[in-house]
Amino acid sequence: MLVCRDIVLNKGEKKILKGVSATLEPGCVTALVGKNGAGKTSLLRVLSGEETGYHQGDVFVSDKNINNISSLGLSLRRAVLPQHSPLSFALSVYDVVAMGRAPHHKRGDFELSVERVVAQTLEMVGLSGFELRGYEALSGGERQRVHLARVLCQLAPLDDSLQRKWLFLDEPTASQDIGHAHDMLSCVQDLSHRHGLGVCMIVHDLNFVLRYADEMVVLSQGEVLSQGTTSEILDSELLAQAFGVQAQLIEHEGERMVFIKGTF
Predict the structure, then answer these.
(1) Computed from CA positions of residues 241, 247, 251, 252, in that sequence, does the dihedral angle turn out positive or negative?
(2) Confidence of residue 254 (pLDDT cuts 50, 70, 90)
(3) Strand partners, 262
(4) pLDDT tens, 143-162?
(5) In angstroms, how far is the first alpha carbon of the chain from the final one?
């Protein structure tokens, strides 16, 4: 379980997070939802251990304070896929994905074949056979999928050992076409549900949230507006409060969808 309690984060005179508490469950996909500037990325950074400058509160991973976990220990427990992952060197896809094994090599763990893990993770993200391609020659969407393979490579082996590991995704579908976006989120959801991986992601498309997120944490102006099971809390009233939109949830062939009528 991943828990944050009473997190207060300020940047200069601006209050980014105002006493935020949330609980994330393993084997569950949790979406952080809210307007731009609501505090989603800041909360994701706090939960992942990348943001340590909060002024109040604590984060616990499996009942252990995240500040008491070494950087190496943390890198073996969780992986983070940011919105942008710039590379300034001409590398092959294989080289980029294999970077994910670095924490394991620092620990002296060479048990898993890097070649096998790279091939496995590339297959998961729909890029089998891309190992020898140049990273710089790829499209933006393909690059993002390469980096998803890289962070999955960091968490390998991708089996039941994922039950105590976490994956953080900041807008993973931003540069993807709709088909690859669904494939990416389906892959992540499958790892979560089948192998116990805990997933925390920021996704703006509420229909993706409805389809792939088990839980939601809805933020507004640095505070938690609502949190709970997606199917239970996502409704027209919550969308009006969080986004200032008139919306209706409709059902089609057993799937719920968000239909935006307009803004207030």
Answers:
(1) negative
(2) confident
(3) 246
(4) 999 999 999 999 988 776 67
(5) 38
CB-based contact 114:159 (threshold 8 Å): no
> Any residues with CB less than 8 A from the CB of 110 and at least 6 apart, and which?
104
User: What proportions of the chain, in percent to the nearest 5, are helix, strand and coil?
Assistant: 40, 30, 30
pLDDT band at 182 (very low <50, low <70, confident <90, very high): very high
> Helix H segments across the chain?
40-48, 71-77, 93-98, 102-106, 114-124, 140-155, 178-195, 206-212, 230-233, 236-243
Average pLDDT over residues 92-112: 84
| Single-letter amino acid, residue 251 | E
List, in order of start, the domains of the chain with CATH numbers: 2-233 (3.40.50.300), 234-264 (no CATH)
pLDDT at 12 over 80: yes
Cβ-count burial 172-182 (b if 16+ within 10 Å, e if not): bbbbbeeebbe
What the block records as the tokens of 25 is: 């469950």
216: how many CB neighbours lie within 10 A of its CB? 26
Give dist(CA 104, CA 13) in Å, integer: 40
Average pLDDT over residues 220-237: 95
